[in-house]
Amino acid sequence: MSIHTQESVSGFVASEPQLTNSTSGNPRLYFRFGQEHFRREEDGTFTQLETSYHHLVMFGRSAERTSAKFAKGDNFLAEGYQRPVSYEREGQTVESEEFVAKRIGHDTARTRYDVDRSPRGADRNRADKEQSRAFDARAQPTVSSSPSLSR
Fold first, then answer.
1. Which domains does the chain possess?
2. What is the three-class DSSP state of 137?
3. Can you say how many angstroms the Cα of residue 133 is from the centroid of all Cα atoms in its chain?
4. Are 70 and 101 in contact (CB under 8 A)?
5. Residue of 15, 30, 117, 124 with fewest CB within 10 Å of its CB?
6. For residue 123, how far is the Cα from the chain centroid?
7. Which residue in 85, 89, 98 sits closest to 29, CA to CA?
8. What average pLDDT values come out for the chain (151 residues) when binned by 10 residues?
9. Where is the composition biased (Polar residues) (predicted)?
10. For residue 100, which of 65, 68, 64, 55 has the smallest C-alpha distance?
11. Quick one: pLDDT at residue 95?
């Protein structure tokens, strides 16, 4: 089976993420993101070039979760696709493009964070109860201390 791949982008959140609803009522997250660009010089050093800015949108429950986890300045990686868009600005139609993110996460190379590996939803409650329950030696199976031989 072949490896599933998609387009990806990396950058930093340049505007405060805005969670709204699409015309169909679906949650929609929007923010502008920046991408820093560098040029490698002959002596091995890097020169920073002008930062470019782009649009990112995300929809549905992923948009809601991302809205709660991301803030202006966060570094991220996102998987999805580009699409052309047009909108009105000062009476003029502007042609542009946006990145539609299906998945997004903080950039581990540039972000410090902790990972919560506990189960989500109802499973989380069960796991919490199991973890908090005191160890009870009586509930453990009995193990004989003397070896037994059977033939």
1. 7-110 (2.40.50.140)
2. helix
3. 33
4. no
5. 117
6. 22
7. 98
8. 95 98 96 97 97 98 97 97 94 95 94 86 60 52 51 48
9. 17-26, 141-151
10. 55
11. 95
